[in-house]
Amino acid sequence: MPTEYAGVRIGTEALPPPAELLRAFRDGQNRNKHSVLAAARELVECHEQRHQAMEAAHDPEAGNRRVAACSHLVEDIDGHRAELVGQIDSWVAGNVEHRGGASLHTETLGAVIDRLASKWIAAQHALRKTPQQRTHPVQVDGEAHLQWCRLAELTDGYRDLITDVTEHRRRLPVW
């Protein structure tokens, strides 16, 4: 069944470029510039809270009540993440025109940005290891390198995706 999309052609500035997305992840200064960037920043905050809750739940000293509270918190956070992904996908449905013959991407833009936000947090935490955990104070360990390489790969994929969407070679699913 064909899906109707927005009737205006988008320019490259309509979908946030990777640099703006990563800037929004880092400092949130772009909150009011673009609704996608505002949702992206909130996704980063959700992933940070989720990471902290998971660490608290896996603490050897955590009792059953603490684990249960963390589990409920993670469920709430994941529900909010789903809402934010939906907001991004709604923006896509209302603002991005797709050519009928373009190949369909496997994930919504909201899902792609959620994965990027998750990897951003993983990369940030890998860098925050204390110097005592490293063999050399300025050395970046293998885990940090791996997480940042994965973030770079996802960022490159995002860049390719928005370029393909803008040039009507690919279309985003709209639910």
Describe the structure.
This protein is mainly α. Helix content is 62%, strand content 2%. The chain is built from five helices and two strands. It has a two-stranded parallel sheet. α1 (18-27) crosses α2, α2 packs across α4 (109-127) and α4 packs antiparallel against α5. The longest helix is centred in the middle third of the chain and has 32 residues, at 64-95. It is globular, with a radius of gyration of 18 Å. The model is unreliable at 1-13 (pLDDT under 50).
- The total beta strand count reads 2
Shape: globular
Succession of helices and strands: HHHEHHE
Looking at the chains present, what oligomeric state does this protein adopt?
single chain
Query: What fraction, in percent, of the residue positions are helical?
Result: 55-70%
Summed over residues and divided by their number, the pLDDT gives a mean of: 85
Q: Main β-sheet, in a few words?
A: 2 strands, parallel
Span from first to last CA? 12 Å
Q: Helix tally? A: 5
**Structural class, from helix and strand content?**
mainly alpha
Q: Order the strands across the largest sheet as they lie in space.
A: 1-2
Low-confidence stretches: 1-13
Radius of gyration: 18 Å
Hey, roughly how much beta strand do the residues contain?
Answer: under 5%
